[in-house]
Amino acid sequence: MFLRTVRSYSIIIFSLLLISVTALADKNNPPLLPDPIAEFLILNDSSGLEFSEIQKISPEKFSDYEGEKLHLNKTYWFKVEILNSELESDQSYIHFYNYFSRAEVFQLDPDSTVVSAKSGTLVPAKERAVKGLFKDILPFRMSGNSTTTLFIKADKEMELIDDLNVSILSDDTFNRFISFNTDVQSIFAGAIFIVFLLNLILFILSHERLYFWYITYLAIMTIFFLSYAQILERSVLSNYPKFDLYLIFNLAFHIPIYALFLNELLREENVPNARGFLKKFALVTFVCACIIYVISRNNYLLSAKLNDLFLFVNIFLLIGFFFVFFRKVSTTAKVVFIGTQFIVIGGFASIVTDFIKYSPFHVFYYQAGFSLELIFFTISVNYMHHKNKLTKTKALLKNAQIETEYLRKTIEINELNSTIDQKNRNLVSKAILVSEKEQLIEKLIDELQQLKSGEAAKPDIDRMLSSLRTNHHNNNWPEFELHFKNVHPRFYESLNEKYPDLTANERKVCAFIKLNLSTKEISQITGKSINTINVARARLRKKMKLNSSENISTIIANIG
To answer: Is residue 336 within 8 Å of residue 376, measured between CB atoms?
Structure first.
């Protein structure tokens, strides 16, 4: 539903924009004056002749120009007779529609002084008589009684047009057109520059490749339009008119850049075939664009025709790509696909308009399509940026939650281990106290045994010995074991599961080892010799079937 709405509104907006541009173009398009040219003559064999020589040539040498093809790298002289009655003002312009590389008009003023003006696609901007969109427009003033006579010296070196089109523009019409075109191109260039600058800033801040390919595509298209409108030539390329003409071929490079932009846009999409195709497509088209540019250095006409063919073929390939994958991609990608259709429609409208009737406004259709495409692209790219940013933020939040939970559990484990260590120390202390008590009882028993040899207090001594022996045999091991079980509640259960054949004394030794007591400490607590304890440990290792590389303390420490 959303996509249908977007497409419907987009078509309506684009149609209205085209109608508006067409209306403005019709209003400001320089009209051909009603047959102002009385004669348009050509001197076929005129190479190397200067104006002073042309003046001496008999008028019969000139013949009517009937549309014959003009050859490259050859100089032609034309004689144009213009009806003064059809001119709207004293100052007018003759326009050849960017057909000549170099053109110079000569005119005799009333006192027979020669007045000349230069123009042409390969004439530097600072040398041209008229600055602006038209490169080979020549100014002239009304002279004579009924007709104004102009002599024009012209040649073409790399232009494509075969049919020579000529029109006469009044001064008022020309100035209105220049003013209108300047306003439109300034607004367009300013808007594109702002979009470019904003996306460049976002790329610098985010380092996302999607922005990189987008601003690269934007830069290539912007250079093309600025070159077409002569904005670059009038500013930074005023002395390099040929270089300015070669900038048309940078349009070929927008195809591979656009493919890489699409590839990056579909990075998160589940369409591996589409991304694989786009990578290969970008590589092939980039190589083709480079070949076209290399050819242009030696054969401009051929490379220009190849460039047009290249653009047409790739446009149809991309349309086929959209048709195949449109239903398989996300809404964001679909919006980009729809936006691309506008520049395709605008491009076709521009070409068809220019083919049917030359108009300097035909590029406005292309610019209108490009502007709408940028709107769709900018919406999609920024949506992808915020989506990726949100995804990264969620991932960071999830990682932070995981780290927080890990720290919480680590703290709990550390606190538990600290509690266990404290209880173990208490157990060891208690065991040592019990050991010292039993040692004291042993000592007292020995001393009383020695006193028993006397007869004086023998009955009392016997009674004391009996009490001490009873207390000695009923040691505090049960109490110690009770405390041990509170600290390590699953130890004996786990020990019995793994080693069910252990005796009670062997389990005691395991308990002491669990407390990380040394052999000496166990000896002190149990009152047995170190050798006895070592023998008990060896017997325990054998029962537990431990090999020589296994540490009994580590094994027991991991139980329970």
So the answer is: yes
Tell me the angle at which helices 331-356 and 362-451 cross, rounded to the nearest 10 degrees.
160
DSSP state letters, 411-477:
HHHHHHHHHHHHHHHHHHHHHHHHHHHHHHHHHHHHHHHHHTTSSTTHHHHHHHHHHHHHHHHS-SH
| Coil vs helix vs strand at 155 | strand
Q: What is the pTM of this model?
A: 0.61
Collapsing DSSP to helix, strand or coil, 329 comes out as coil
Where do the CATH 2.60.40.2380 domains begin and end in the chain? 34-173
Q: Who wins on pLDDT, 190 or 262?
A: 262
Q: Where in the chain is the domain with CATH 1.10.10.10?
A: 488-560
Look at residues 77, 76, 97 and name the one whose alpha carbon lies nearest to residue 32.
97
- Length reported for the chain: 560
Instruction: Summarize pLDDT for 472-529 with one digit per residue, the tens.
Output: 544 556 666 776 777 778 888 888 888 888 888 888 888 888 877 788 877 877 778 8
Can you tell me whether residue 65 is helix, strand or coil? coil
Mean pLDDT of the chain: 78
Would you call 454 helix, strand, or coil by DSSP? Answer: coil
Q: What is the CATH code of the structural domain delimited by 488-560? A: 1.10.10.10
pLDDT of residue 102: 87
- In angstroms, the CA 248 to CA 225 distance is 9
Say how many CA atoms lie within 13 Å of 5 toward its Cβ: 3
- What pLDDT, on a 0 to 100 scale, did the predictor assign at position 285? 93
Task: Determine the Cα–Cα distance for residues 50 and 77; give it in Å rounded to an integer.
Answer: 9
Strands (E) in 432-558, as ranges, are none
Q: Which residues contact 293 (CB under 8 A, 6 or more apart)?
A: 246, 249, 252, 303
Q: What is the pLDDT of residues 95-105, one digit of tens each?
A: 887 678 888 99
**Rounded (10°) angle between helices 254-265 and 300-325:** 20
The reported pLDDT for the residue numbered 273 is 87
CATH architecture assigned to 34-173:
Sandwich (2.60)
Query: What span, in angstroms and rounded, lies between the C-alpha atoms of 554 and 540?
Result: 14
- CATH 1.20.1070 correct for 2-27+186-396: yes
Instruction: Dump pLDDT digits (tens) for 399-427.
Output: 888 888 888 888 888 777 777 766 666 66
Q: pLDDT at position 7, please?
A: 47
For residue 159, the model assigns a pLDDT of 60
Burial (Cβ within 10 Å: 0-12, 13-18, ≥19) of residue 560: middle
In this predicted structure, which of 7-21, 154-168, 311-325 has the lowest mean pLDDT?
7-21
Number of C-beta neighbours around residue 232 at 10 A: 19
For residues 513 and 519, give the distance between their C-alpha atoms in angstroms, rounded to a whole number: 9
Instruction: Give me the helices (H) in 452-503, please.
Output: 458-473, 477-487, 491-498
Q: Which residue has the tokens 């398989």?
A: 328
Look up residue 467 and give its two tokens.
């009490």
